[in-house]
């Protein structure tokens, strides 16, 4: 009798329009990372608070999440996938890399406006990024670093395998406010955590 294995859920990075929360793109991780590193730094009132303040918190902790993502086109090449044959894993790499780029349209528009002298250029806003690690951990994040190691290449020097070390800071309501899509997503994340703690 054949055994039935449960459907494996894939981790993902989802990109949303920041003001409306409308999904723009979802990057499913080809392989789930073997480990996720998380760090929580409490937001206490001060380094050396007096006795009346020692148990007070200014807000949710500063949470960081790190993981290593792997891309591999070996199976697609063996199956003669035309995209893998012509580009390797470059499309997947580009999708991840663009998470930390402003769009070319915004860059060009800002340069034109700067040359016309019509506006003061403000830092460019980015889309809202979510790190999705199962139904109870959907976190609004800001990518703080991305380190890419390309490991094998085809004759056109397209990477066939790559490892990407991602570091992310979870955006909480102190960062984004309550009345934003990111704030609502953060509160759902914290409420899910409180629900899980009640079952411990």
The domain count comes to 1
What would you call the quaternary organization?
single chain
Please tell me what the overall shape is: globular
Distance between the termini: 36 Å
Radius of gyration: 21 Å
Strand/helix succession: EEEEHHHHEEEHH
Q: Helix count?
A: 6
Major pleated sheet: 7 strands, antiparallel
Going by helix content, strand content and strand pairing, the class is alpha+beta
**Which parts are unreliable, with pLDDT below 50 for 5 consecutive residues or more?**
1-5
Helix content, binned percent: 25-40%
Strand content bin: 25-35%
Topology readout:
Layout: E1 12-16, E2 23-28, E3 36-44, E4 57-72, H1 74-78, H2 82-87, H3 90-97, H4 104-116, E5 128-132, E6 138-153, E7 159-170, H5 173-176, H6 181-198
Antiparallel strand pairs: 1-2, 1-5, 3-4, 4-7, 5-6, 6-7
